[in-house]
Amino acid sequence: MKTVTIDPITRLEGHGRIEIFLDDAGNVANVYFQVPELRGFEQFCKGRPVEDMPVITNRICGVCPEAHHMAATKALDDLFQVEPPPAAKKVRELFYMSFYVTDHATHFYVLGGPDFIVGPDAPPAERNILGVIGKVGLETGKQVIACRARNHEIIRQLGGRAIHPTAGVPGGWSRSITPELRGEIETVARQNVDFARFSLKAFADLVLANPAYRDLILSDVYLHRTYSMGTVDAANQLNFYDGLIRVVDPEGEETLKYPCREYTQHIAERVEPWTYLKFPYLKKVGWKGFVDGKESGVYMATPLSRLNASDRLATPLANEEFEKFYATFGSQRVKGRYQPVHHRLATHWARLIEMLYAAERMLELAQDPEITSPEVRRIPSGAINPAGGIGSVEAPRGTLTHHYEADSRGLVTRANLIVGTTNNYAPIVMSLKRAAEKMIHGGQVIEEGLLNRIEMGFRLYDPCFSCATHALPGQMPLTVNLRDARGELVRTLRRG
Amino acid sequence: MVIGLGNPVRADDSVGLAVIRELREQLTGTEGVELVELWAGGLRLVEAMVGFDRAVVVDAMCTGQVAPGTFRRLALGDLGATRTTTCSHDTSLPTALEMWKRMEAPVPEDLTIWGIEIQDTETFSEGLSNPVARAVPRVAAAILAELHGSRGA
């Protein structure tokens, strides 16, 4: 048999690349994180029937298709000017909560957790789900598998397909919930609540109770005082499915609150000559570069920022954890909100609190008497909003906005998406720079340490730049180029 | 079970799915073989193959060292995977398989992977580039030959 060597360096065009420039003294001068361009999305969409968008855009990514499907479906409600019946909104939200539980659980146990449960300095070969199972036991591994399986089954039954859902239609949802299915969903939701509580307890016992990890989270590693974005309901409580987009400043003062339809009034995109991906920022504050603080329009849209932008959480157990979270950081309530937490590693903790909220919300919806109503669709009149249709949801990785325009025949003329990760592009670059600055002094580099730190700075955002690009070997290679003050390549660090 | 991996709207990345469609035409009605189109690797991939004795995975590969359309039969160890968690959203195939094995879940003992060299994954398109499209029937034939060989034996 022939052996093929698969060298990640050859795949760089398809993935991100980090360039670190040193000054004359050998310290970090600048860090660039380049993201490849995905060509032709709008061209691909143009001329297609706009009602196909929920099943086309959900193929952008095999990991969070539910989020794209939901944002696209909501954009169609707006485009066709149709308000879904209350039961349809509840079914959509229920479906979406099941997705959130499985997505957040997977991130914690498989991606983010190994840094804390196995240890940030453990050899990379041990910092994975196998290392986690080794530490916490096989039973937990079985629970992770069971959590994914039961929620995937609910997603399949509600969404019409296991990975790329099809049930979202303008004006509602294409299937209603039978009493039998409702019973199954309630059982799953209860198991989800238990598992989320178990996960938060594991986080408390293994991470917060360990002084080394606790210090790591509370330290200024990856501390950036930026604006925080999240979607809230009428009572300023976090909501993943619907509400107003709220932005709070680094001190927690509300800066903006707007319906997603107004996103272009509030969000602008900065173009830098060294990367294809644009950097969104708050128009009102302006672009001041890759810096934090109140004067810089950089914002984050993550589990951490969503908690920061909320006054409280709408479900009781998650709200208890929310209180505990801010108490740990010594935050005080000012004008109804806690002072924001800016320690980016706390995002992992925030994600688990969100998982508990999603599980509790799923249970509430499963017990709602209206959830089995057959009234899950309002047929649109066919009139098309000439101003286009805009829909947004909170995707696990940040606020996700879909925006379509269509001609009188209903064919797409324009399509624009701001995906969750894009919001966080500037903060990610800042976190990478922080990691490099901490690890490189006078040109001395701790090689393995730098890669670990960069990965940790990266992973907390769970970035989705490689959405869809999963050609063999199916891993995101990490390549870091170190360049001197003249731009000459001095070293390449690589993992893949 | 034969699993084709790929993204249906990312040009050559969808070659694994195209092979499954090709096989579907030739294997319809054949008992004991299941054909699956899958859009995500890692945990999803292993979840799809739990309970099967034998799995064949078809995916795009991007080595840059061979001409587009070149295909190779690989074993798990050839992936060069390093068992790190650097995979974008969950984990690598070998790590995921190992996880299920530790749970004593029935994962296939016999796993082969067909990699097809591709050239374009950065354009949104449902079509394949010519050299990659030409490889589709050849890969399908190679997989069929192996399946028939083992069934006859």
Greatest interface and its participating residue counts: A-B, 66 and 58 residues
Taken in chain order, the helices and strands of chain B follow as EHEHEEHEH
3D shape of chain A: globular
**Unreliable sequence segments of chain A:** 1-14, 466-476
What is the CATH-assigned architecture of the largest domain in chain A?
A: Orthogonal Bundle
How do the strands of the widest beta sheet of chain A line up side by side? 2-1-18-19
Task: Tell me the CATH topology of the largest domain in chain A.
Answer: Cytochrome-c3 Hydrogenase, chain B
How much is the radius of gyration of chain B in Å? Answer: 15 Å
- The assigned structural class of chain A equals alpha+beta
Beta-strand content of chain A: 15-25%
End-to-end C-alpha gap of chain B = 18 Å
Overall average pLDDT of chain B: 80
Structural class of chain B: alpha/beta
Strand order of the largest sheet of chain B: 2-1-3-5-4
Give me the Rg of chain A, rounded: 22 Å
Large-scale geometry of chain B: globular
Q: Say what the CATH topology of chain B is.
A: Rossmann fold
Total number of strands of chain B: 5
Major beta sheet of chain A, specifics?
4 strands, mixed
Number of strands of chain A: 19
What does this molecule look like?
Chain A has 496 residues and is of the alpha+beta class. Chain A folds into three domains: 3-37 and 433-495, no CATH class; 83-219 and 343-377, Cytochrome-c3 Hydrogenase, chain B, CATH 1.10.645.10; 227-342, no CATH class. In chain A, 40% of the residues lie in helices and 18% in strands. Chain A has 15 helices and 19 strands. Chain A has helices at 41-45, 53-57, 65-79, 86-117, 129-136, 138-159, 179-208, 211-218, 263-266, 303-308, 316-328, 347-366, 420-423, 425-439, 447-459, and strands at residues 17-22, 28-34, 168-169, 172-173, 227-232, 244-248, 254-258, 267-270, 279-282, 299-300, 333-334, 337-338, 389-395, 398-406, 412-418, 440-441, 444-445, 478-483, 489-495. In chain A, the strands form seven sheets. Chain A has a four-stranded mixed sheet, covered by helices on one side. Chain A is globular and about 70 Å long. The two termini of chain A are 23 Å apart. The relative contact order of chain A is 0.19. By secondary structure, chain B is of the alpha/beta class. Chain B has one domain: 3-Layer(aba) Sandwich (Rossmann fold). Chain B is 35% helix and 18% strand. In chain B, helix 1 (15-27) packs across helix 4. Chain B is globular and about 45 Å long. In chain B, 52% of the residues are buried. Chains A and B meet through helix 1, helix 4, helix 5 and helix 6 of A and helix 2, strand 3, strand 4 and helix 3 of B.
